[in-house]
Design brief:
Layout lengths: L24 E4 L8 H4 L6 H5 L18 E4 L10 E2 L4 H7 L8 E3 L7 E3 H9 L9 H26 L8 H15 L21 H10 L14 H21 L5 H20 L5 H54 L17 E4 L3 E6 L2 E6 H14 L15 H23 L12 E2 L1 H9 L6 E2 L17 H4 L13 E8 L5 H17 L4 E8 L7 H7 L4 E7 L6 E2 L17 E2 L5 E7 L1 H6 L4 H11 L25 H6 L4 E2 L2 H18 L10 H13 L1
Parallel strand pairs: 10-11, 11-12
Antiparallel strand pairs: 1-2, 3-17, 4-5, 4-11, 6-7, 7-8, 9-14, 12-16, 13-16, 14-15
Helix pairs in contact: 3-11, 5-10, 5-12, 6-15, 7-10, 8-9, 8-10, 9-10, 15-16
Amino acid sequence: MPALCDSAPPAVNTAWGKPTPKPQVVVESKQNPAPTAAASSSTVASPTAAAASPSSGGWGSSFASRVGTKFVPAEPTPPPAKPVLRKDVSTNLVMDINMTSEHIRLWDSKDNSSTVSLAEYHRRLRASPLCSRPLLKTELLRAELMEALRHRYQELCSQHLDWKLPPKESFNRWLCERHAAMATQPSTDGEYDPLVPGRVEPEVSPSLYRELLDDLPVKLRPGLPYVTEQAKAYEHLSTYLGAVSSLLAKHQGLAEDELAELNQRMRDTNAKCQVEEKLAASEVVEAIRELQAFAKPLLVKLMGPVVGGLVRELGVAAHEAAVKIAEQAKAESSDENGDNGDDGDDGDDAVSVHKSDRYCELSYRRSAVAVNTAHYVKLRTLFYRHHPSTSDQPLPHPIASVKEVEKAFHAHLWLMLRRYKSYCGLSRFEGSLQQASVAGHVLRHLHASAAHVEMEGFASPLNAFFNRYGSAFVDADCVFGSVGSFFSLSLAAGAFVLTPPHSEELMSAMAARVLSLLSRSPLPLSFVVLLPLWSDPPSSASTLLAASAMVRAQWLLKPDEHQFIDGLQHEPDQHHHHHRSRLFKPVHATQVFVVSNDAGHELWTAGEEAVAAIKLHMTKKVCDMFATPQGCKLGERCQDAHDLQQVEASRPRIVNTANNAHNEQGRRRAQRDHKKPHHRSNNNNSSSDEKTNAKSWRR
């Protein structure tokens, strides 16, 4: 079994459809330094093959028993020495992606009356031109145009609405709504792009149009229900009056009597609050609400055309960017002599890799992305597990050597990280909620319980729990186990968990798709759906599911009762001022629906005991594997299998390279010097020495 990090990759195919015989590998373990004849003649083909036998040290075996394993490839050429991963928290991530999906079936596109397994569907997708060599130049252009599109959106809001910044995450919600529209009506004019929306109907995004109008003339923070201080209430009143006056002076569209009536109402409200300076905060807030209720229809009439033009202009800019990206992709694909990062020479067109103890940084030309060590190990495991070189499947293109497979991995990894960075945004913490996922212990229970969930419908290589999953960008994620968008999957049988991004249109499209799949399939099919609880107005997806007869169970999780995993959990620690926890509590309640057809309900009954067990695991408080002992809020009451010392000891570190080995020796020398007793006067008593030593240890 090769090491989990930077081990020698398995043998690869050197020609189309002609698998190369796997090299003989002699396994020498610290526990068994003298292997038997049977062991010396064994063959280690791939991580997938190793997983088949628990006794062979596969993915299911203990990571600690594999740390000291050394692999000596047979002649003629041994692989270069690679760093080895210490005992680390990434073991948990690797174990998560070993969940099987043997019960999932999809309708065969070649024969609608038959089904194929999820593994076969993914193998077909992996061999398609869609998952060919990574187009790094195209991805770099896509990232630049996406950043320019975000800046253009900010300029439009500042120019037309007098806002310094647009509503938080509004651009990401617009992307989700456009992606949902593209999933139901894909483009056929060759201008489709997986990230940048092209020409999509309706031309004016209803979600962004509605959100911008709701925030007019200005978004007051904190919201009025949370204002309790008199000074803050008067500040909100002044801000609102100034914003309305600015819009009325800049835009002309109201009738004279409407404009005069609105100005008079504003003067009356201001006079009432300013004359009676002893008004309580609640009275000032109530006056602001009355003025908002009166002014809202007039502001919508005044600013509706302006906001519509803003949203339309953003759509036009996105369409132009999508056309440029399509032209670049076509040129790069047709350029036979171009270097795509997986088999090129070292230089500007190659992905450079820099590794440290805590993270791995990948750079291509002027763009650099980083991922922490634990997720680097997970992604590398997924890549080699699904790579055609680990099976008898033909490669979509010839690869000559093991070194080039490693180059291909880093090229695909840079492309995928760059894609999600462009998708989430460039600001700190931006996009973390859109990519949030269910905690691992919940998914582990759903897999082992009567629900028998085997796949996530809305995931990514960065937060996926299962071996195969659905994600937004199949071209970037397929090599890491993605089977494509949930909306493109013709699911026939199986159990799935769905946690879509919190976009109204996308969640509605998801709910409609779920009910359509259930009504079509006679095979056992079931979904566990988690949606945010919105009450003003309620989510159309929740309303649609709640009215369906195929909902077998539903319950509500309060905000302080459950946790999600941060969507930016893969980012290195040094990018933040402090070590953030992976887990967070949502600000809203969560609705859980168990939806299944009759066959699925008979096979996976959602009884009271099963629902109670699922609710118990969803509300269970666990220790964050990535948090420091000081950051674990549970302390001695930690319910996770790892205590605080194990959590600290399980931090991922890459060692054994020349630089890291030198740094490791320096750290150990500094620790030894630091622990040496200092010269003290005879007046110091033993208790003070003990306190100093304890303080030194803590430091």
